[in-house]
Write a structure and sequence with these properties.
Shape: globular
CATH topology: Rossmann fold
Distance between the termini: 12 Å
Number of domains: 1
Strand order of the largest sheet: 1-2-3-6-7-8-9
CATH class: Alpha Beta
CATH superfamily: Alpha/Beta hydrolase fold, catalytic domain
CATH architecture: 3-Layer(aba) Sandwich
Radius of gyration: 16 Å
Number of strands: 9
Strand content: 15-25%
Order of helices and strands: HEEEHEEHEHEHEEHH
Helix content: 25-40%
Oligomer: single chain
């Protein structure tokens, strides 16, 4: 698993550092099967390596902060949830994901799922981690027979307790990497009824993580391969 985690870290950081005019990860042009950037400045790549399809979402840019701050919880707006469901997610994150969802799903269904490739790993850093979480659950709802894994770096919390329960049941192979005292992983605060999904994997100074009640922006930008 650590091999795939390091690949997600490399792909995520490479996409974060990509040319602002091109929604493509650095040094991955020959491996990118799909690249799309929405009008909301949300970018997603589908990368093929060793028979695995990696769906990688770019982290936050200046134009994304409006979505990041829209912390009010909202029902998932497409028809995946049963009537009366108590599952709620971050309004800004779900709207950002919706801006790339249709072209991404069309590509995955037309070009991947029809040809039997059922090994998919979804990932991203920061906002990209939140979008990867929503995408992983979305894919599992639509295609329950597919083996989906999710690896996030410095991801904020995405949904409420009911989202956490549903997500962990449907996408149990989820690793949430936290570097040092990364401030973004503490947001939105738990007192707004948000809860992290997946299993936490710590990177960097563990004592710093446990002792300091506040977070660090520097740690949010310090992720690296293991």
């Amino acid at each position: 698993m650590s091999y795939f985690i390091n690949r997600v870290i490399q792909f995520s950081l490479g996409l974060n550092q990509s040319d602002t005019k091109r929604c493509r990860g650095l040094k991955l042009y020959e491996d990118i099967l799909f690249a799309f950037e929405s009008e909301r400045d949300i970018c997603v790549n589908v990368i093929q390596k060793g028979g695995i399809r990696y769906i990688i979402f770019r982290g936050s840019r200046l134009g994304n902060w409006y979505d990041n701050l829209r912390v009010k919880q909202h029902k998932i707006p497409y028809h995946l949830m049963k009537k009366g469901s108590r599952i709620r997610v971050h309004t800004g994150f779900i709207d950002a994901y919706k801006s790339v969802r249709l072209p991404l799903m069309k590509f995955l269904i037309d070009e991947i799922l029809m040809y039997g490739n059922k090994d998919i790993i979804v990932g991203g850093h920061s906002l990209g981690g939140a979008l990867a979480t929503l995408c992983a659950l979305d894919l599992q709802y639509k295609n329950p027979d597919i083996d989906i894994e999710c690896v996030t770096l410095g991801s904020p919390r995405v949904g409420n307790w009911w989202f956490y329960k549903s997500y962990n049941k449907r996408v149990p192979k989820t690793v949430r990497i936290v570097h040092g005292n990364d401030i973004v992983t503490r947001l939105p605060p738990a007192w707004l009824f948000y809860k992290h999904v997946g299993k936490r994997l710590h990177q960097g100074n563990k004592w710093k993580f446990w002792l300091l009640p506040w977070g660090s922006i520097r740690d949010h930008l310090a992720y690296e391969v293991f």
